[in-house]
Design brief:
Elements: H1 5-14, E1 22-26, E2 30-34, H2 48-55, E3 61-64, H3 70-77, E4 82-86, H4 89-97, E5 103-105, E6 116-121, H5 135-145, E7 146-157, E8 183-190, E9 193-194, E10 198-201, H6 205-214, E11 217-224, E12 229-236
Parallel strand pairs: 3-4, 3-6, 4-5, 6-7
Antiparallel strand pairs: 1-2, 1-8, 7-12, 8-9, 8-10, 11-12
Helix pairs in contact: 1-4
Length: 237
Amino acid sequence: MSKDILGKALLDYHNLEYTEDIITYSSLDEEDQLPLPYMFRNFKQMPILEQVALGHCKGTVLDVGCGAGNHSLYLQGKGFEVTGLDASVGAISVCKQRGLLKTIHTDFLRLDGQKYDTLLLLMNGIGITGKLKNLDTYLNQMKRLLQPNGQVLLDSSDILYMYESDEEDGGYWIPQHVDYYGEVTFTMRYKNEESEPFDWLYVDFNTLKRAATFNGLNCEMVKQGESDDYLARLTFL
C-alpha cells in the first residue's frame, strides 16, 4: 500500500478527474473492478448492513478504514462526534476536503491513548488483520480503544462458497497452502500503477465468535446478509 493507489484514485474522483476505476487482482484468480463512484455513495446507496450498522452507533465513534469518509460524514451530520482513521494519505485528504472535522492518519495498531464508544469497521473492515493468526492482536487493540460499555460494529463474509467444487459429489476444494480459506491476497492497479500485494481477511461468523470469546469479548449477530455476509457486534463480556 506504499504507493497509496486507493488514495490517488479517491483524490482523482473528488477533484473531478475520474477516468477509470481501480482494478483488483486476488489470489482467488479473480480480476474485478472497484468502481470509484461507489466509494462516494450516500446513505441510501449503502448496502443494508452498512445502514443498520450506522443506526446502531452510539457515543464517540472511530471509523476504522474510513476511505472517502461516507460513514463518518453521515454520522457527523447526525450530530455524532466521529473520527475517521485511515492509513491512506489520499483518503484522509479527501475526508478533510469533504468536511470531516476529525481525522487520524495512522495504522490502526499504532493508535494509542484514545477511547471510543463505537469502533466501526465496515466494508469488511476486519480485513485489515490480513491473516487469521493476527486476529487476536487486532481484537486486543479494539479492547484497548473501547470505553467500558463500548462496542465494535463490523461486517464480513463467509467466502467458503468460492471454493465449491465443480465435481458432481459437491464439496469444497481449498488449496493446501492456505491456512484459512478466508485469507486472500490482493493487488490493486490504477492508471498503470500497481500496488504491492497485501493480505486481506474474510472471516466467517463462527470463527469470529470463537476468537472474540477467547479474547474476552461477546460476539453477537446483528443482521445476516443475503450473500453469506453479516453484521456483528462485539462488546466486553
